[in-house]
Amino acid sequence: MTPPVYVEFLNRFDIEALQLTDSEILQAVRKGLLMQGGGETSIEPRTHIRPRAGIEGHFNVLRGWIGGEIGCAGVKVVGDFVGNYREGRPSEYGLVTLFDPQNGAPTAILDGAGLTDMRTGAMTALGADYLAPSKPRVLAHIGARGTAYWNVRLMVALFEFEEIRIHSLRPESREAFAARLEADLGIEVKICTDWKSCVEGADIIVEASRLSAPKPLLKTKWVSPGALVIPYGTMSAIEISLSEIGDKFVMDDWGQAKGQFGAFRAHIDSGRITEETLYAELCEIAAGKKPGRESDSETILFWHRGLSLSDIALAHAMLDKARRLGVGQRLRLY
């Protein structure tokens, strides 16, 4: 008789009910980094599915496996449609599916939108943890989409900033973003009406804009020596000259440089950044194989494209907590 197969299901409301703490999110994603640094993972570069011409969006497909105590293979599919705000929708919908790597049976399905926001914010914050100046005073954040909230929230959990600046194209989005941060985190946020006033003089610069096509809006001359720059918009908003000022270029995974989109796409395609000029993958720094920042005078560029490993590690942590709290549903598949 074929053994029964049950699938754990967590929808958006289940994940909200878990009330994951900042520490739980950071710990889960850091665990994935450490497993990656220890060679206990397998990851395939993300692929993109583009609908017919004229549709303002695409699908991201991420795949990977983590061994050890996590012991999961996983696939995430996320739709990234930048114009969804016109209908009052989030720009991203997605699903994470987990599988037993011993027999291939599916084990879980989770809402991937909120999970993606959390794990992206965690990767931004952990990148800053390893690569930021020793006492960063000013955080500049461009963009107000879903991941933006977790970028700022999780960095605030790690650093004591004197000033937090934000900017986004639409006044209503940046004002709502600032209001949410101030209400949830009890911090003061400075709303900037342009890129220059937001970026200039900042110690950490996060560029998470939502452009429909590449456009060099973040000027290299605004970046102070010793800053950490984290640009990860799907469509690049940086100048080609940015790579020239970086003392170290770090990625989450070099294989992700082969995709179609991303902040440093033109730099990779033109040979300005190569595997030879890559300083390290973040997992190597997390695992102690290479030092991170070695001087406050270093200008460091960190490009994270998003890893299936982070999705899997955070999904595993969510499922563990859901079981303890009795949250979610158990569906029989076979």
Give a written overview of the molecule.
The chain has 334 residues and is of the alpha/beta class. The chain is built from ten helices and 15 strands. Helix 5 (171-185) links the parallel strand 8 and strand 9.
Short description, anyone?
By secondary structure, this protein is α/β, with parallel strands linked by helices. It contains ten helices and 15 strands. The strands form two sheets. Strands 9-8-7-10-11-14-12-13 form an eight-stranded parallel beta sheet.
Which keywords apply here?
31% helix; 334 residues; alpha/beta; single chain; globular; eight-stranded parallel sheet
Q: Biggest β-sheet, characterized?
A: 8 strands, parallel
Count of helical regions: 10
Structural class: alpha/beta
Strand elements, count? 15
Taking all Cα atoms into account, the compactness measure Rg is 19 Å
Low-confidence stretches: none
State the helicity in percent bands.
25-40%
Strand order of the largest sheet: 9-8-7-10-11-14-12-13
Q: Can you give the mean pLDDT?
A: 94
Dominant shape: globular
Intertermini distance: 11 Å
Q: What string, H for helix and E for strand, traces the elements in order?
A: EHHEEEEEHEHEHEHEEHEHEHEHE
Q: Determine the strand fraction and express it as a percent band.
A: 15-25%
